[in-house]
Design a protein that fits this description.
Blueprint: E1 2-7, E2 10-15, E3 18-19, E4 22-23, E5 27-32, E6 35-37, H1 45-52, E7 59-61, H2 67-70, H3 73-80, E8 84-86, H4 88-94, H5 102-107, E9 117-118, E10 122-124, E11 129-134, E12 143-147, E13 152-156, E14 167-168, H6 173-184, E15 192-195, E16 200-201, H7 204-227, H8 232-240, H9 246-249, E17 254-255, H10 256-267
Parallel strand pairs: 6-7, 7-8, 8-9, 13-15
Antiparallel strand pairs: 1-2, 2-5, 3-4, 5-6, 10-11, 11-12, 12-13, 14-17, 15-16
Bound molecules: zinc ion.
The site of zinc ion has 4 residues, from loops.
Length: 278
């Protein structure tokens, strides 16, 4: 399913696999001044093509290599002959078959591997100039787009909510915090954040700072409980009461426990958490 939302100069395209009339997870792409930011998953690729037919799409970028951001690449290239750009580290990842967990296969599916080009520092459209900002952490090849005159910031999966507590097993919390601090230090006093789950944060810097404070509060609580001798599971229950329902659905790949484990490792880098995510 694809739903369009007009946000003035920016158009939001919400896309998600429909199963018996229900979409279980939406991913947002954005269309602004002929630039398409992300391409959804493979299941929604035909709808994206039909939506874009007759419209002026000149450039396409992928914020990162994950399957819900590159799934439309193949058809976009075949139907419109478009070049697609991504972080240099994403190029080889997008051009090979991904390894997906079962839940990812069900919700987003395997994208067709595509050849994308390494992005430059800037993307110019007819009316705007976007700075390409490396925002690693969610994954090493993540980038965001920043348009200083408008205060627009397309954050991909780097920032999705002020109180996120469920994280992937392969995310780098130190990198995430550094990327968030980088965004909070941009010269614009106000940023409008366009996230990949579709939520828009009009007071973006305040939202980023809330999220940073949220992570630091959890981090302090984790360190405090670890010092008292609680193990990782006990710390999670003590702070959050229970695990997210997404943890069993994803085989532990997406969980609150991941955040606790990462914060423990951050507090004490020699500490290794041995959890089987398979
Ligand atoms: Zn992602």
């Amino acid at each position: 399913m694809l739903q369009e939302k007009n946000l003035g100069a920016v158009t939001q395209l919400m896309m998600g696999r429909e199963v018996e009339g229900t979409v279980y997870y939406w991913t947002a792409a954005y269309l602004v001044d002929g630039l398409l930011v992300d391409t959804g998953c493979i299941y929604t690729a035909p709808e994206l093509i039909e939506y874009l037919r007759g419209m002026e799409v000149i450039q396409v970028i992928n914020t990162h290599h994950h399957e819900d951001h590159v799934g439309g690449n193949d058809l976009l290239q075949k139907e419109f002959g478009l070049d697609i750009y991504a972080h240099s580290q994403a190029v080889s990842l997008i051009n090979k078959k991904m390894e997906l967990h079962q839940y990812q296969e069900l919700v987003w599916g395997y994208p067709v591997p595509t050849i994308v080009k390494p992005i430059q520092d800037q993307i110019k459209t007819e009316h705007h100039c976007f700075q390409v900002i490396a925002t690693p952490g969610h994954c090493a090849d993540h980038l965001s787009l920043y348009e200083p005159k408008q205060g627009w910031f397309f954050s991909g999966d780097t920032f999705v909510s002020e109180d996120q507590k469920v994280f992937r097993a392969d995310e780098d919390i130190v990198g995430i915090i550094a990327s968030l601090q980088k965004i909070a230090e941009l010269e614009n006093q106000e940023l409008i954040l366009f996230t990949s789950i579709g939520k828009i944060f009009p007071e973006g810097k305040a939202s980023i700072n809330k999220f940073l404070n949220h992570l630091e509060e959890i981090s302090a609580a984790v360190a405090n409980l670890a010092a008292k001798g609680l193990n990782a599971e006990e710390i999670k229950i003590s702070i959050f009461s229970r695990e997210s329902g997404l943890a069993p659905l994803s085989g532990g790949h997406y969980s609150i426990q991941n955040l606790v484990d990462k914060l423990l490792t951050r507090a004490s880098p020699s500490r290794q958490t041995a959890i089987d995510y398979t």
